[in-house]
């Protein structure tokens, strides 16, 4: 599945996404931002957040209202 996500994320580079990740301590954590590469995004604070495709529980593109 990780390889499949890499291909899908290549097409989404530059788009705004929300990604829910499995937290190592249990539960989940969410990251929201602009996808910079297939495994990193820049959040609203300008920080680069890296993630592994194996950590992803669910994700979606955030589409701005016109």
Q: TL;DR?
A:
This protein has 66 residues and is mainly β. The protein is built from one helix and five strands, in the order H-E-E-E-E-E. Strands 4-3-2-1-5 form a five-stranded antiparallel sheet, with no helix packed on it.
Please name the defining characteristics of this protein:
66 residues; 44% strand; 5-stranded antiparallel beta sheet; 1 helix; mainly beta; SH3 type barrels; globular
Text of the CATH class: Mainly Beta
**Computed CA radius of gyration, to the nearest angstrom:** 12 Å
Indicate the low-confidence ranges by residue numbers.
none
The tally of strands reads: 5
- Sheet of most strands: 5 strands, antiparallel
SSE series: HEEEEE
Q: Can you describe this structure?
A:
- With 66 residues, the chain is mostly beta strands.
- The protein has a single domain (2-61), classed as SH3 type barrels, CATH 2.30.30.
- The protein has one helix and five strands; from the N terminus they run H-E-E-E-E-E.
- Strands 4-3-2-1-5 form a five-stranded antiparallel β-sheet, with no helix packed on it.
- The longest helix is centred in the first third of the chain and has 9 residues, at 2-10.
- The protein is globular.
- The relative contact order is 0.28.
